[in-house]
Prior knowledge:
Blueprint (H helix, E strand, L loop, with lengths): L1 H9 L7 H17 L8 H20 L7 H23 L1 H4 L1 H6 L5 H28 L11 H25 L3 H15 L7 H4 L4 H5 L3 H12 L6 H32 L1
Amino acid sequence: MAQGLAARIYTIIPENNRIERIWLLAKTDFNIQYSSNALGVIWAFVYPLMRILIYYVVFSFVFAKDIPNYGFYIFSGIMIWMYFQESTKGGLKVMRSKRYLLENIRFNKLDVYYASILTNLIGFLVNISVFLAMMIITGLPITWKLIYYPIFIINLMMLCLGLSLILSTINVYLKDISQLWELVLLLMFWINPIFFAKQKIFNMFPALLYANPLAGIIINSRDVIMYGKDPDWFLVGYNYVLAGSILAIGVWSFNKFFHKAIEKI
């Protein structure tokens, strides 16, 4: 069913309207993810709702920490982490999984990667909506500083797009890269301030704050959405330069090796 849906959609991809094209590709991939389930896309709302409820109960009452609203604290980091993990793992496979599309389309090949990033953004926005709704229900204040949040979403998308381009190119020549990337993700999960306060690790190893491209995004996004604080603008600038550099390398590597990589698959 999913393959049939994809085949029908891909035959009507518009070649002149780029925004419509990217959105159609992203929407198709999103629907395919849930097409085999009885509840369909409803799971996109049920899953994050159940996740945040579990975190809220378990970490606010059962395993309460010194960090106030610890369940929300965790979920604010998990949202960022899940988007990063799913986008890079999915992006890593794009050149192989979408080979038929990349070989036959007459428009910009990067649009397939943009669509992959946008697909995960749909789920990410659902997570944020559930998170904000739960904040309102439990009486946590939402301040006007929330308007800064899109800054970190864009930063995160740039980072994921750049890494996806790099990893998918490497994946053609080194099939073990998916396993290696799983190990990198495992390490990154525990050196990012998801479950612990940032001071616990970055006071001991301050260089990790800048070597880790995700840490600043998690810290700043949590500050504006949960605590109503201004972001650390130096860290914002640094993260944008870092993500921009990774994206530039990704685009360069894709343009340089694309044709050879496609032939090799």
